[in-house]
Each structure stands twice: as structure tokens, then as C-alpha cells.
Write a structure and sequence with these properties.
345 residues; alpha/beta; 14 helices
């Protein structure tokens, strides 16, 4: 779910074309959950093959990454490892919310309220170990490298961007900034026309770029203070203070500045006892677990392996998959020819 800093952070629009040639580290779990939530039938039922296996994660990975590759983008997917101990409370809270959403989904279906049913259904998405393994197999078949993080994938991606191994990290969550990613890209996996919930209109969702240093300068905060702001509002690891949003949070952090002072103010003003693990959470964001044992070298697409995964095992349309192959191959040849011409001149 991530920290809610969208109203404060400076964003700038970018195009897929402008990112051509860039290596970008995607937070794999974040992206896969997006696909599972959004790629559904009208009543909210997940996209499935004839055997009843969910396929939204595979569909999203194949079609979206094919488009990124056609635009010259070089994706790398970073998968979560073991969650930190202090995340367990948040994991349990999310499980309870999923159960509640399942009940509301069924109730909306019983009353024939399909748009409402789909909204609740999107909050019930689950990513299993088998689905993660399938995703890795498909990425390998497409020649897309993937990295196994020791803990949070978003933290690993942020560290890779910090060290210059990749151009940017990509996620819908703003936690990447708390982890220190110097450049965050959003909306790369959901670009296009989207219906506004409960309204009869559509909006265009475009990619956007956030520069950490620029945002910190505008907010007049250090990165450590941005972490404090996230903790006040609520992160993937803590709920935050009830009633404290981004604007109130930034006032508190600007005035009190340090973890100890913010903790004391929260207790006095809001009667809020910070959980014991708050210092651990702060340290985790400031210096997250990271591995340098990885390869980000892209391979060649194995059309036979992709076809076996999608068409043979999961009933994808062979004709549609072939069309994507042809489109991707054509775009890659054009990019290669253009690059040779640029080198010549």
C-alpha cells in the first residue's frame, strides 16, 4: 500500500519514448499486485485459464513488458525476500482487510451492483508462491532479468538506483523515496485511459518521474525527515497517527526535526505511543538490506518458452501472442537500425 505522500511530492511528466535505452528496476510485487487487481472481468472475477488458475499477473507481465521493450526500455524486476519482523502486524491487518473486501464483493454481487463489486474484488488480490515462480519463468523466457532481494524488493531497487546500476526504480508506492531512490518512475505499468471509479468519464494516466533531491528541496526536508514524515502518516510497516495526514505531518517534522522530538510531541499532542519497533523502522528505511549479488544483463526472448507458458499451460490466444512477438521484433529492429544510423552520424 505504501506511504501517502502524493499530495506533497513534485512530479514531472515523462514519456515511454524518453526513457528509451534506460535500465529501470521494477518493484515486482507492487507491479504484480497491480495486474492482479486491475485485470479482471466486469463482476470482479479474476482473469483465469480454463483450469481456473489466475492469469492476470502473466497477462500484465507479457503485454506491458512487450510495450516497454518496444519503446527501448530495459526492465529489471526485483522480487521481495523475507519481510522484516516488524511488518507482521501490517501483514495481519491486510489479511483482515482482504476478508472484509471479500464479504463486500459478494454482497455487491448479490445485489447486482457490478461496478461496486469490481472495486471490492480488486482489494482481494493474493499473490501466491506458485504465481511468483510463474512470473519469474515468464520474465526469463522474455529475456528480462530479475533480482532476488534479501528483504523488500522496493528497497533493493532503490539501492540499485542509488549506486547507478539502474537509471531509476519503478513503483506506484512512494516508499521508494524513503528508501533513498534518487529517481522514482510511476505509472509505467498502468499507462493509458482509465475509468474514474463511480463516474461516467475516463482520464489518461501518463508516466511520471519524481526526483528525490528536487522534492526534498521543495519540502525543505532531509531524507531522514522524509522518513519521519512517512512514519507519522503511515508506511508499509506502521499505521501512523490517526488524523495526521501529509500536510499536518510535514508541519510536525519541520518543527520537531528528530525522531526523539517527534516521538515526544506525538505522545503529548495526540496521546500516541509509538510502537517499540519505530526506531527499527526508521533504521530500516535509512539503511535497508541490500545485495550486490545479482546480474542485470538482458537475454534474448525465447518465443518457444513464452508460448509454452502462456498458450500451452494457460490458454492464452496463440494468435494474439504471435502478434505481440511480431510487433516487438519489428520495433527492436527499427531501434537497432536507428542506433546504427546515430553512431554513423
Amino acid at each position: 500500500m505504501g506511504v501517502d505522500l502524493g499530495s506533497l511530492i513534485q512530479k514531472r511528466p515523462v514519456t515511454l519514448e524518453s526513457l528509451s535505452g534506460r535500465q529501470i528496476a521494477f518493484d515486482a510485487f507492487n507491479i504484480l499486485y497491480q495486474f492482479l487487481a486491475s485485470i479482471r472481468q466486469e463482476d470482479g472475477t479474476p482473469l483465469m485459464d480454463f483450469k481456473g488458475n489466475p492469469t492476470g499477473h502473466l497477462s500484465g507481465l507479457f503485454y506491458r513488458n512487450s510495450r516497454l521493450i518496444e519503446n527501448g526500455i530495459r526492465p529489471i524486476y526485483v522480487f521481495d525476500g523475507l519481510p522484516p519482523r516488524f511488518k507482521q502486524r501490517e501483514i495481519e491487518r491486510r489479511k483482515a482487510l482482504k476478508k472484509e473486501a471479500e464479504s463486500k464483493w459478494q454482497e455487491a454481487l448479490d445485489y447486482g451492483r457490478l461496478e461496486e463489486a469490481k472495486k471490492f474484488a480488486q482489494a482481494t488480490s493474493r499473490l501466491t508462491k506458485d504465481m511468483v515462480e510463474e512470473a519469474k519463468q515468464l520474465l526469463s523466457a522474455m529475456g528480462i532479468p530479475h533480482v532476488q532481494a534479501p528483504s523488500e524488493g522496493e528497497a533493493q531497487a532503490a539501492c540499485m538506483a542509488q549506486k547507478g546500476a539502474v537509471y531509476a526504480s519503478a513503483s506506484q508506492d512512494y516508499d521508494s523515496l524513503l528508501f533513498g531512490s534518487p529517481r522514482l518512475l510511476r505509472n509505467l505499468s498502468i499507462t493509458g485511459k482509465r475509468k474514474v471509479p463511480r463516474q461516467d468519464r475516463y482520464v489518461m494516466v501518463e508516466p511520471e518521474e519524481i526526483i528525490l533531491g528536487e522534492s526534498l528541496s521543495i519540502l525543505e526536508l532531509s531524507r531522514e525527515q522524509l522518513i519521519l514524515l512517512g512514519i507519522l502518516v503511515g508506511t508499509d510497516f506502521n499505521e501512523g497517527i490517526n488524523g495526521v495526514g501529509p500536510k499536518t505531518g510535514i508541519k510536525i517534522v519541520r518543527e520537531h526535526k528528530t525522531l526523539e522530538a517527534v516521538r515526544a510531541h506525538a505522545k503529548l499532542k495526540f496521546n500516541y505511543e509509538f510502537p517499540d519497533e519505530i526506531t527499527e523502522i526508521f533504521d530500516f528505511f535509512a539503511s535497508p538490506p541490500y545485495t550486490q549479488d545479482y546480474s542485470i544483463k538482458a537475454g534474448n526472448m525465447d518465443k518457444g518458452a513464452v508460448t509454452r507458458i502462456l498458450v500451452d499451460s494457460h490458454d492464452f490466444s496463440e494468435e494474439r501472442v504471435d502478434r505481440v512477438f511480431q510487433s516487438t521484433e519489428k520495433a527492436m529492429k527499427e531501434k537497432s537500425s536507428q542506433k546504427k544510423m546515430e553512431e554513423w552520424f
